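Thread: Newbie trying to understand structure tokens

Hi all, I'm a second-year student working on a class project, and my supervisor (Dr. K.) asked me to get a predicted structure for one chain before our next meeting. I've only ever worked with sequences, so writing a 3D structure as a token string is new to me. If someone could post the tokens and maybe explain what I'm looking at, I'd be very grateful. Here's the chain:
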Amino acid sequence: MQIKDLARQTGVSAKTIRYYESVGVMPPPRRGENNYRQYDAADVERLRFIASARGLGIALKDIAEILAARDDGIAPCDRVLDVLSHQLTEIDRRIADLLTLREVLQTIQQEGASLPRDDVAGEHCVCYLVKTYRQSGDVVIDPPFALAE
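---
Reply by user tm_fold:
Sure, no problem. This is what the structure looks like when written as tokens:
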């Protein structure tokens, strides 16, 4: 099958498939007489594993290690369990960070609601609270991902 067929069967774009090939998580494909990439059922299964692992937030580096072990005939189950454990720890940390951020936002919102709303300079209103919260000694939140901008 060609790359468009692989993309359709797996839900992974052709561009992403080519990227996975360039970083080594997908092996270089065989080439047909027309030099088109050629894939088979094993490629479909490998790509489904990669896509599912990425959907769980597993890093490509970890996926590459898991697949390399499998390619070498070694069951990667212990490595997968380690990676899942790391993911859970990281998610717990992110949840804690987000809960702290939520508390800070609620505090700023509650305090800001009682302040004037006509302060164009932003020195005696909620804008001042937003501008100075990091300097006030409150917990500084650095989320691991950007919130909507």
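A couple of things are worth pointing out once you decode it. The longest helix spans residues 77-113. Confidence is low (pLDDT under 50) at residues 140-149. Feel free to ask follow-ups in this thread.
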